[in-house]
Amino acid sequence: MGLLKHLERDFPIIDSDFQRFCASHGILSDCFDFTQFHLILALAIYPHAVEDFLFHDLYVLAAFAEAQSTSERLKQGITQVLTIIDGQHQTWFNGMELLENHQRRKRVLRTGCVGLDLLLEGGLCQGQLTELVGPSSSGKTQVCLQAASNVAKDIGGVVFIDTGNSVSPKRIVHLVNNILDPTPGEAKNRMFERIMRCILCHSVFNIFSLFNVLHELEANLRLQSEEARVQLIIIDSISSLITPILGSGSHGHALMISVGILLKKLANEYDIAVLVTNHMVGRDGGTLKPALGDSWKSIPNVRLLLSRVSGDNKCSMSIIKHPSVCARKQKMR
Amino acid sequence: MEINTLPISASTRGKLISTGYTSLSSLSSISPSRLAQDLRIQESEAVEILKVASVNCGVGNSDGTRAIVAGAQTAWDMLHEEEFARRITTSCEEFDQILGGGISLKEVTEFGGVPGIGKTQMGIQLAVNVQIPVDYGGLGGKAIYIDTEGSFMVERALQIAEACVEDLLDNGPARKDFRASQPNLSAKNLLRDIFYFRVCSYTEQIALVNYLEKFISEHKEVKAIIVDSVTFHFRQDFQDMALRTRLLSNMALKLMQLAKKFNLAVVLMNQVTTKYCDGSFRLTLALGDSWSHTCTNRVILYWEGNERYAYMDKSPSLPSASAPYAVTSKGIRSSASNCKRIKLMQA
């Protein structure tokens, strides 16, 4: 089925007349299998077809249309096709609109770790992908659990994707009790239950099920009601899903990047803060560096390094990468 | 959704993409025979591909009444579930305490320590203890013991099992009739319910872990998988360290999945190695930094003077703590009672 033929089903204005007109001006109408939802893919394979339409001088095209007997219909058809193509990409923003969008829809989520909130000047930004890097038992999972409890208390929905069976409800209870008003009572119990119900956990043990969960999430996010909106997605740890596929040819690499892109897309379109954890690997010479290599480096918007002084219960945290805060260090418990 | 994210083999994926099937929707309305023809593959293979694709495709259509992610649990539900969760005791009170009451199910717990510290003893003890009947406060489960080093001593296991039965009968419910109604409680039966696998290479080890899912779904009573040791075959003959990391992390995820899916405890034994750090050599657990992230809990066993100690090194829910324990002829026991015995003998 050709592009325009396919569109004819949905938009009667693009009739066979219009198609013939397009064909006569060298706009390919019959060369690929195309659905509205896969313009991007189509673009990758047959870029010339869509480009044909966009590159054609529209005034010349309209002038040609004038000369035809059914000019009105043809012009309508041109406008229709252009609106369809326009609908495929995100709307253009200028700086002011971006700023307004940022101020109105993107919130800053407090994590409840005083040090971390200070360091990030408020907390986790919605629309951004934040990554925690640190060696084993440096407190990555603890920060995740703390953030989950605090966001659930302050605002609402948290989706916790767990790869290491490390979500301990008892630990969450402990953290929630710490942030709640200490006086016991009916109101507190209700609050407690609400918080616990806001945190949604899902175990994932390979990259493909992670994709499934994220795609399902994406489909459902469109339908979600405002009060139960998902504010934060946590993946603890994303590196344990990616390590098994990395290095075995280029496909693993492609999957890693598509996970990153998908997460950032979710974060941006649905105003969600995304928090992922990554581990450290030894470099030659015994020093540690974040896992997943150089191409992952560019994926997270914010990277934080956690470290723990051995034999001490204190953890410290430093910024490796942040779009608006300069690098510094902060102690935390 | 793109073909790229489907769990299919690289060659099939290549064929699909080169013939133009790049999106899941392009596969949604095609017959297996047509697909087989286009891809020049067997029809049965085409059926398999379509099956995978339809599972992944069905995900998108939801009616809004369902939870935002199918299969997810709220922390509230998990909390209620955990209230009923039982744990596997180590037979040493102090040890149980730092573990939060024993080895917890649904988690992967790693033990590591120098040779002779009692890792294998701990493994055998847990394989026996997981079978303590429900009436005696146990789990009444069965155990899978994966032996990679050949260190499982059946005589020793019998000894530990006999001691365990003896202790249970001494401390358990006192009623005579009750005891009579437990004819199954004998050391022989305890040994019978340990499924023993001897593994001689890392390939076998990975194959076995992959096979376990099928095995356990046929033996639902299994409540503990003990791997003694997870390290052994991965420490020799490995040139390609990247491959090793990949295999290990994959295996760890499989074990995690088993633990969660079948509600069982996975216990891994690890060896130690030296690591150059801050100008001196220190003992750490083997298999490197990546591996240290893969377990839920990590317990380090070490000597302090003449006493054995366990140190909770990593746990998402418990604080770091250490406790003494002892290895006796009866198995793992509290250190205090052991000291008393030594004193008595000296007197």
From TrEMBL, chain A:
<dbReference type="InterPro" id="IPR047323">
    <property type="entry name" value="Rad51D_C"/>
</dbReference>
<keyword id="KW-0234">DNA repair</keyword>
<dbReference type="GO" id="GO:0033063">
    <property type="term" value="C:Rad51B-Rad51C-Rad51D-XRCC2 complex"/>
</dbReference>
<dbReference type="GO" id="GO:0005815">
    <property type="term" value="C:microtubule organizing center"/>
</dbReference>
<dbReference type="GO" id="GO:0003697">
    <property type="term" value="F:single-stranded DNA binding"/>
</dbReference>
<dbReference type="InterPro" id="IPR003593">
    <property type="entry name" value="AAA+_ATPase"/>
</dbReference>
<comment type="function">
    <text>Involved in the homologous recombination repair (HRR) pathway of double-stranded DNA breaks arising during DNA replication or induced by DNA-damaging agents.</text>
</comment>
<keyword id="KW-0547">Nucleotide-binding</keyword>
<dbReference type="InterPro" id="IPR051988">
    <property type="entry name" value="HRR_RAD51_Paralog"/>
</dbReference>
<dbReference type="InterPro" id="IPR020588">
    <property type="entry name" value="RecA_ATP-bd"/>
</dbReference>
<keyword id="KW-0233">DNA recombination</keyword>
<dbReference type="GO" id="GO:0000400">
    <property type="term" value="F:four-way junction DNA binding"/>
</dbReference>
<dbReference type="GO" id="GO:0000724">
    <property type="term" value="P:double-strand break repair via homologous recombination"/>
</dbReference>
<dbReference type="InterPro" id="IPR013632">
    <property type="entry name" value="Rad51_C"/>
</dbReference>
<dbReference type="Pfam" id="PF08423">
    <property type="entry name" value="Rad51"/>
</dbReference>
<comment type="similarity">
    <text>Belongs to the RecA family. RAD51 subfamily.</text>
</comment>
<keyword id="KW-0539">Nucleus</keyword>
<keyword id="KW-0067">ATP-binding</keyword>
<feature type="domain" description="RecA family profile 1">
    <location>
        <begin position="105"/>
        <end position="280"/>
    </location>
</feature>
<keyword id="KW-0227">DNA damage</keyword>
<dbReference type="GO" id="GO:0140664">
    <property type="term" value="F:ATP-dependent DNA damage sensor activity"/>
</dbReference>
<keyword id="KW-0238">DNA-binding</keyword>
Automatic annotation (TrEMBL), chain B:
<dbReference type="InterPro" id="IPR013632">
    <property type="entry name" value="Rad51_C"/>
</dbReference>
<keyword id="KW-0547">Nucleotide-binding</keyword>
<keyword id="KW-0227">DNA damage</keyword>
<dbReference type="InterPro" id="IPR027417">
    <property type="entry name" value="P-loop_NTPase"/>
</dbReference>
<dbReference type="GO" id="GO:0007131">
    <property type="term" value="P:reciprocal meiotic recombination"/>
</dbReference>
<comment type="function">
    <text>Involved in the homologous recombination repair (HRR) pathway of double-stranded DNA breaks arising during DNA replication or induced by DNA-damaging agents.</text>
</comment>
<dbReference type="GO" id="GO:0140664">
    <property type="term" value="F:ATP-dependent DNA damage sensor activity"/>
</dbReference>
<dbReference type="GO" id="GO:0000400">
    <property type="term" value="F:four-way junction DNA binding"/>
</dbReference>
<dbReference type="GO" id="GO:0008821">
    <property type="term" value="F:crossover junction DNA endonuclease activity"/>
</dbReference>
<keyword id="KW-0238">DNA-binding</keyword>
<dbReference type="GO" id="GO:0033065">
    <property type="term" value="C:Rad51C-XRCC3 complex"/>
</dbReference>
<dbReference type="InterPro" id="IPR016467">
    <property type="entry name" value="DNA_recomb/repair_RecA-like"/>
</dbReference>
<dbReference type="InterPro" id="IPR052093">
    <property type="entry name" value="HR_Repair_Mediator"/>
</dbReference>
<keyword id="KW-0233">DNA recombination</keyword>
<protein>
    <recommendedName>
        <fullName>DNA repair protein RAD51 homolog 3</fullName>
    </recommendedName>
</protein>
<dbReference type="GO" id="GO:0033063">
    <property type="term" value="C:Rad51B-Rad51C-Rad51D-XRCC2 complex"/>
</dbReference>
<keyword id="KW-0067">ATP-binding</keyword>
<dbReference type="GO" id="GO:0005524">
    <property type="term" value="F:ATP binding"/>
</dbReference>
<keyword id="KW-0234">DNA repair</keyword>
<dbReference type="InterPro" id="IPR020588">
    <property type="entry name" value="RecA_ATP-bd"/>
</dbReference>
<dbReference type="GO" id="GO:0000707">
    <property type="term" value="P:meiotic DNA recombinase assembly"/>
</dbReference>
<dbReference type="Pfam" id="PF08423">
    <property type="entry name" value="Rad51"/>
</dbReference>
